[in-house]
Input
Amino acid sequence: MAESVIDDAVLVLSELLSNACKHGRPLDGVAVGDGAVRAAWRVDPAGRLLVEVTDGGGPTRPAPATPSVTAHGGRGLNIITALADDWGVRDDVRGEVTVWVVVHTDVYDPDAGHRRDDFVSRVVAPAVSHLPGLDFAEAFDDAG
Output
């Protein structure tokens, strides 16, 4: 795998683990102790890199949020969506919940017209000039 793909996979894993620790319950019967989750990665027969984290489930289903500009969280699944070819949630009969991600493995994205390792160009906030009602020029004129 390209180093940029591994970097993306590490970020995806970090986001998944953070969400599992914050929102999920620990796995039952895991020998490593209380608060345990399970992380795994593998390359499937098609050469795709899969990353997954399993926890004991939580009160809500994982879903991308639309946080405010000043929010301290809520961006994890949006980051994952930007770095993934696909992702989803799998439940099992024991109540365990696994969030799985197929990490982008291509180096160039012809649809976006840039290299995949250029994360900033894939996940970027809109320019302030494009947000209605935010005219900072007037505020600076008044302060002058």
